Amino acid sequence: MVFNNLLLHSKQIKEEDLCLTKSLMNCVSEAIIIIRSDGSILYFNNAASCLFGYSCEELLIHIGLLRKAKGKLSSTSCLLAASTLLIQIHQDSCTVPQYQEIKLLSKNGEECWLDYSVKAIEFAGKPAKLVTAVDITKYKQVLEREKELVQNRVQLVSMVSHELRVPLNAISFCTNLLKRHSDDWSKKKIQEYVNRLQKGVEMLSLLIDEVLIIGRAEAGKLKFDPKPLNIFQFCRNLLAELYPNESYQNSINFRCQDDCLSTNLDRIMLQIILTNLLENALKYSPSGGIVDFIVYHQDGKVIFRIKDRGIGILPGDRERLFEPFYRGKNVEDLPGHGLGLAIVKKLVDIHGGQITVESQIGVGTEFALALPTASIALP
After folding, report:
1. Which CATH architecture has domain 2-135?
2. How far apart are the first and last CA of the chain?
3. 274-310: per-residue pLDDT in tens?
4. What region holds the PAS domain (predicted)?
5. Where along the chain do its domains lie?
6. How far apart are CA 33 and CA 41, in angstroms?
């Protein structure tokens, strides 16, 4: 801190230098406060007013009232915190420079972190304390975010290790049986276990792909490439690819508001998003159940609504629905890794969109996806 370092080498500031010193202190970004030996504030620069959100006069009045009330004073928590801090600094002994970090409430009610130091000085020939402070809130937020990322990665690795065991155990089990009994089994039985092996490999491949998408999204390394897209044709092609021979027509009620509209979206990401939502809707619906797939434009956004008539989502599960590997308590016996909706949320966030869910047990679930877009009419 500039002035703190300067005053470490200067035990006294002369009277004739006061005006210049105060002018200089008002030009720096550090909060500078000088407290007299009686606890009153001798100087409070502009940066300090901005940092605390109060003027020197406001704090002096409140400190006086706080002392008279012996700490029992009804006031806003932010003003109380600032006043209490200055009183504490005055009361503490300060034989050597002190450096501390503290969390306070700013005037607007937001939490902020201060890195402050206290140094005993002589100001205009009288003992005083020099307090310098800087706002380190953004630095603390970055540290907290990094801590969360590390925790998320550790958790992800742990969960991936657990989930990998399922297909690997199936592959290992089938392989060992084939080694032992391939000479004794019929071709039909051998083929049955080969099919199980293939299914295990497919499960493993899908899990690895999903984990890679999550990892790249977390690291900000997924390429976002929005291009003009005919929404109607895109959705028709996607349904035909997922459900060949037009079988989807018996289970998916698809409607698009306008088939002559080009929308700027990332084709690959949109395919992953819609595939996950449609597959979930069908998986959790009873046999023969109808899924509504509605697309329209509203307020500069393209809206996708996918509604099933399935088992529904338990209220306690909805808050954690988009967490990696989290699965609802009423679907634990159904196949899945719990990564699909986590991927959907990441890709929606990359688009700058929103996804909401409404659900009722035994009635069904509806996901509403809103993606901002620049739309142009197709020729």
Report:
1. 2-Layer Sandwich (3.30)
2. 63
3. 988 998 888 888 776 789 999 998 888 899 999 998 8
4. 22-60
5. 2-135, 137-221, 223-379
6. 7
